[in-house]
Amino acid sequence: MRGDTTVNGQPISGASVKGRRRRGGVKLQALAAGALLLVLTACGGGETATGGGAGGQGPAAQGGGKQENAASQAVVTVLPKDGADSVATSGALKVTAEQGKLTTVTVADSKGAQVEGKIAADGSSWSPTAHLAAATQYKVHAIAKDADGRESAKDTTFTTLVPKNTFIGQYTPEDGSTVGVGMPVSINFTRGITDPEAVEKAIKVTAVPAVQIEGHWFGNDRLDFRPKDYWAAGTKVTVQLNLDGVEGRPGVYGKQKKTISFTIGRRQVSTVDASAHTMKVERDGKIIKTIPISAGAPSTTTYNGQMVISEKYQVTRMNGATVGFGGEYDIKDVPHAMRLSNSGTFVHGNYWGSPGIFGTTNTSHGCVGLQDARGAGDSSMPAAWFYDRSLIGDVVIVKNSKDKQIQPDNGLNGWNMDWSEWIA
User: Fold this and answer.
1) Catalytic annotation on 367?
2) H-type helices in 164-245, by residue range?
């Protein structure tokens, strides 16, 4: 028949076929549309059919979703401002973050030396823990993160002031030296210090083996460091002078940045008994020699107390006029002289006195005299023996003299101050 056809071998009328084709076509179109919607949904980030209304006004399009490429909300601020010069060496540098937390802050000079600093516990700020050097350019690099972990960075440069007035610290002992167990670190400043806390903070003294070391100011121009007791033999001591840029007094800045080190030698402590007229030399816990001496005469007695050898002279001149004794003596060739005080106390050789005074009579103007030969050329003499076996920094203790105890700042003699007073 015209218009007839078959489906699976069965004849179907033309009218029926047309109706089924229409229905079948609708189903195929619907399936195709559904598949297209599914593809569009998958590519659109998982929006539901109800979420993607006309005009593409779903959550992402409306700004309600997370924007992966958005800028960090954290704001980093650096003071001083980029390019600033004549910046103060203390109190001017600070890094802060708003709407975020600092994660990295580095400040370094043109040689790459970094400034120590600390980020606050809440991440809101960073401050240096030490002063800056004067006349130095610094570069700042800071990074902060916002609540979504996005980073914001800032890089700036500034230069510190050039001081018109400066000071240095003149120190003892010398770098690389080996000294006795009583040797303090003593620093004399060329200008009086009115901010001792800032200056002391810029000086670090450490030892191996480790021991507590504290500083003490004598007046406003001298700072000494020592442990509670004499150093242990063999100790290695390091002194870091980071004074460059420290404002020691208004408008006066340190200009020193130096590290020195020294070693403590064997332990030698000698005890002078002014009444018995003897000096016992103790080395590493053992008495190695007892030397007859002549201490200060009754009218010019020797100080009592612990004294440290601060200088050694093979031969030196001693003039009474320089220490308040007028023209009572002027000896141009005193042999084997070792200074114990700034006021003129020495332990030294004596060739002009009778040999009989040593061990029996006190005759000096306050010094401790040992028998010696003129010219310091006889090594067999007691003064030569003691000189050859002494180091700067060795301790000489005087007792049983009819005089007062020496003042702690008269020479390197801070051991005459109780530890509680030293650290006060």
Assistant:
1) yes
2) 196-201
pLDDT tens sequence across 305-359: 999 999 999 999 999 887 878 778 899 999 999 999 999 999 999 999 999 999 9
Do 410 and 274 share a domain, yes or no?
yes
Question: What is the enclosing helix (H) or strand (E) of 18?
Answer: helix 14-43
For the whole model, what pTM was predicted?
Answer: 0.81
Domain, as residue range, for 115: 75-159
How far apart (Å, rounded) are the C-alpha atoms in residues 397 and 181? 13
**Whole-angstrom distance, CA of residue 89 vs CA of residue 79:** 13
Spot the catalytic one: 131, 216, 336, 348: 348
- CATH number at 186 reads 2.60.40.3710
Residue (of 327, 415, 394, 411) closest to 365 by Cα position? 327
Number of structural domains in the chain: 3
Give CA–CA dist 237/183, Å, rounded. 11
Answer yes or no: do 337 and 383 share one domain: yes
Q: Is 348 part of the annotated catalytic residue set?
A: yes
Average pLDDT, the chain: 88
> Residues with Cβ < 8 Å from 222, sequence gap 6 or more?
186, 187, 188, 189, 409
